[in-house]
Amino acid sequence: MANENAAILVIAPGRSISKTARRIIAEKGLEVGVETANDDLALAVLKRHPEARVVVSRGGTSKSLRSVPGITVVDICASFADIASAVQKLLDRGCRRISVVSQDNLIDPGVVKLQVGGAWISTHPCANSEEIVQAVRRCSDEGSDGIAGCYVATGEARHLGIPSEFIDENEASLAKYLDEAVRIEAATRLRDLQIDCLNSVINHIGEGVAIFGEDREAVFANDTARRLLEGTPQDGWYPLLAGGLEPFCISYHGAVTRGRAGKGDTVLVIGAGTIGTLAAVAAKSQGATVYISDVAEKKLNYAVRNFGLDGGILNTGADFIDRCFEITKGRGFDVAIEAVGLPGTFQNAIDAAAFGGRVVLIGVGKKNLDFNFTLLQKKELNVFGSRNALKQDFLNLIDLVKSGKVDISKAVTNTYALDDAPRAFDEFDRNGADMLKVEIDFTK
Q: Of 179, 178, 183, 143, which is closest to residue 162 (Cα–Cα)?
């Protein structure tokens, strides 16, 4: 009786192999199921074993199972001793032109011809059952008087009246492949356990986490990342998109969640780096009128031009505040977002904010600022610190990006191959005023 709950299943094309497998399994005390089925029935048999993850089989039966997702197939290959045993039986029966015909995953690929004593022996590996039948007929026409091979080959030989012997696996050969299946199943179980543990941790993280394979397809994703990936065309842009969402969420959290920027608001973002630019994009996506400021004119113009902002203010120092009040007709900005982290730019945000306005600090500073804090009281300002992002920020952004309203790929201004990574860091260090997000492409 087959063990239907076993993670390892032997599907043997013949009863002799099944019998040998059961004996080895009993001796080793393994939890392995055994079934006997030919190529046509193999898939139906596998369906009766939903717990099976590793299948041990051979020939065409093995090939028919390789298309099943989530199943690892261990091929039983005939050893030299297995083939020699079948050939010797034919020699004992007086055969002198022996052809070995079978699936190409059972015997070594490539036709081999050799002479042993007064006998000629040739091998004929085939891709499928039809080729096996044709090969047996061709060997018969060419004078073969004995066929060693799989069940299809021996069956056709009998039909043609040619002596035949089935290539059977000896106990040592079959035991080797069963041991390999046990090793693979243990490794698979450990991998699944590790992924479950990883899931239990990562699914409690608001950020989307995904692991991508060489073909840029996601091989692992937590719930947040999966929401991004589902229903999106498989065009290979996931790594760039997933990588861009994290900084975008920092910006979105500051501009929208903390700063509550929305329709009817005038917003100033100080700092046209990646975080500042994306904060401006986040505010713009909510219907606000958005201006951005920076000391680097090239970076400032890039942000305004590529993300559809309402304007830019080059911060040359003296006339900065005058420009702010000129744009807002003397009111100041409803929301002023600091995304640099310098004392001077935080002061700029305080000064540029309207009475009753909202000031959001996203930039990470390392210096103190000495300023007249009474200004906060006089202008009745609301000052918010913003340092991270919430799960809801990610979910909102996933929907926003998938809608096509925001193209965050434009935040990547420079791409380098992996071998050029040192140059990427060096150039970013020297030319940071002209660059936003830098991408290292591991596929190049």
A: 143
CA dist 378 and 387 (Å) reads 26
Reference 243, options 278, 277, 209; nearest CA is: 209
Sign of the Cα torsion 85, 88, 92, 93 reads positive
Q: Please, which pLDDT band fits residue 111 given cuts at 50, 70 and 90?
A: low
| Per-residue model confidence as pLDDT tens digits over 170-186 | 788 888 899 999 999 99
For residues 160 and 442, give the distance between their C-alpha atoms in angstroms, rounded to a whole number. 58
d(CA 207, CA 246): 7
Most confident of 105-114, 286-295, 434-443: 286-295
CB 252 within 8 A of CB 397: yes
Which residues have a Cβ under 8 Å from the Cβ of 288 and sit 6 or more positions away? Answer: 261, 262, 263, 264, 265, 266, 267, 335
Query: pLDDT for 214-261, tens place per residue?
Result: 555 655 666 666 665 565 544 444 555 656 777 888 999 999 999 999
Count Cβ neighbours within 10 Å for each residue of 179-196 and write b for 16 or more, e otherwise: eebbebbeeeeeeeeeee
Q: What percent of the chain has pLDDT over 70?
A: 87
**Is 120 exposed, middle or buried, given 0-12, 13-18 or 19+ CB atoms closer than 10 A?**
middle
- CB neighbour list of residue 412: distance below 8 Å, 6 or more residues apart: 240, 244, 436, 437, 438, 439
